[in-house]
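S1.2 Input.
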Amino acid sequence: MHEVFYPSLETYKIHRKIGEGTFGQVLECWDRETREVVAIKVIRSIKKYREAAKIEIDVLQLLGKYDKNGSHCVQLRSSFDYRNHICIVFEMLGPSLYDFLRKNNYRPFPVDLVRELGRQLLECVAFMHDLRLIHTDLKPENILFVSPEYVKIPDYKVTSRSPLEGTYYKRLPKSSAIKVIDFGSTAYEHQDHNYIVSTRHYRAPEVILGLGWSYPCDLWSVGCILVELCSGEALFQTHENLEHLAMMERVLGPLPQHMLKRVDRHAEKYVKRGRLDWPEGAASRESMKAVQKLPRLQNLVMQHVDHSAGDLIDLLQGLFRFDPSTRLTARQALRHPFFTRDQYRRF
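S1.3 Output.
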């Protein structure tokens, strides 16, 4: 891809590369001073990536300063500059939720595990929002299990397709503990919030419509993540704005008139006569089919969740309110019966 100079400093011994992205790469290293394994994010020496890295370090220092009782945010160990590459040293964690799903052939997580993951994710979001910070890029790739350990259990649902004596196995993590990573896109409350944020599948409607965004955009992303953990696949699989909005309407019902009336000039083309220009504005028959095949939210959850589906549907409906001013906050979501009902307190 691109050359990155490694920090050949006496302090760290490089074990292996564990990740790569547009920003640079992540190395697993042995810290000779603290005698522990750490992850070092080595940033490409390009201005925009260096600037994002500086934001990330500032945010991590702020989170670390106020994080007295485990907020589920990754811990910064240190940072340094090496030949114009910013290097950020983190505690070593396990695989991302996305990697875990992928290695599990995209089999859904059991709803009790989703509850534990959702609770921790919302605790992290609430902690950040209390500090007037908006993550803006929550997705399964940016949520890591603390431990890489898992157990294999028989998964009888797919025995008929198995060549291996009729038993498929699925992985379950030994621990449900998670931490959120990647604070390079984090925004402070007082900044200008009109640019595009979030990875496409997790992007809130107000972002696409150009209405400005704030804390609620993180809660929309949490809703998308919870559905993906329950179903095994991303809810809104699209790369185009109008199709994305049509998918939202298909799953959740019509977008409110008052939002469609206020769209910015870039989004005007998605609206005709006060409603979404769909299916008339569809780019192709395939696009129309992709929207048509999506189920309503309730049906989607019922397909995958064996118990407590009613509470989960109600929680998701609160996270997926189109109008950000009425969407559940992180603290409100944590008080929802999906998390608080007595029969769920098994962990």
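S1.4 Remarks. Confidence is low (pLDDT under 50) at residues 1-5.
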